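Pinned message: reference record for Major facilitator superfamily (MFS) profile domain-containing protein
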Amino acid sequence: MTAACGFAQNFGQLFLARVGVGIGEAGGSPPAHSIVSDIFPAAQRATALSIYSLGVYGGILVGTVGGAYLVQYFDWRTAFIVVGLPGLILAFIVRFVIKEPPRGMAESRRDIAPPGFFKVMRILASRKSFKHLSFACALHAFVTYGMGNFMPLFLGRIHDMPILDIGLYYGLIAGIGGLAGTFFGGWYSDRKSNQHGDMRWYIWIPFISTVAAIPLALITFIVMPDGYSAAFFYLLPVFFGGFYLAPCIAATHFLVGIRMRAMASAILLFVLNLIGLGLGPMVTGFVSDWLTPTFGNDALRYAMSLTVLVNIWCALHYYWATKTIREDIALAAD
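Predicted structure (tokens):
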């Protein structure tokens, strides 16, 4: 469907192709999360999920840097086609090479009949920690998407960086920082949880990284004197911003039975994307437009800074989730 965007002849066709991309992406991750949790034991689960999640920032790295060059020297249609066609090859590899593992292969929990959607919803609704965890993830994504979607515009509008340099530097920084942060967040949460025998570390790691990202992002947007220093310093908030995903997915899987993991991931990602991707860029853009009559081009700088402060609200929900996460995990169905 990504390649189909390159063949679109009008807005309606491009819109439908992008809808297809969204459907494909949404349908892939929840079952993949479940398969990873089946294969890897609890002590290694967040690390394994972090490796799977590297694809998000790997795609940013390849797509942004490669896409910038393709658009610069060819056109936007070529960029969509070149980036999208390898997905067909990967689809065949997944279909014929990757085998379906037994549910709960890496643990001794008893397999049961798959529950219905509403049963999984009732179970998750009864877990107080999941309510806070899912909303914290959504707010985390709100900040991540609000910053990330406008960072290229920030570099161009505020610092007059050329478009090719924006694609290169932003792609490298966001990709490398996100890759490193995503892996480290999963690995370190496993390490601390195993070291202390305390499952709350799967929440404490996102909590700490969320707080740490606030001053680093503000320095990026307000203090850095030029686009190149801002782009390089942006590595730090992106690094810490990537910590949350793998430990939060792992924590969600600990809260439910082995036949509920894909649905639990789907619900978590639905909340995350509805608020994070749905509102983060929109609210940031709205605030920037609202501030423009007063601050001119600097309005974007201040709008992105205000978006980052949502991390304070996010951190509170992570903290509240730590209060009941151990008790809720103990209630998880066999």
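Pinned by admin. Summary line: The chain has one domain: 2-101+116-330.
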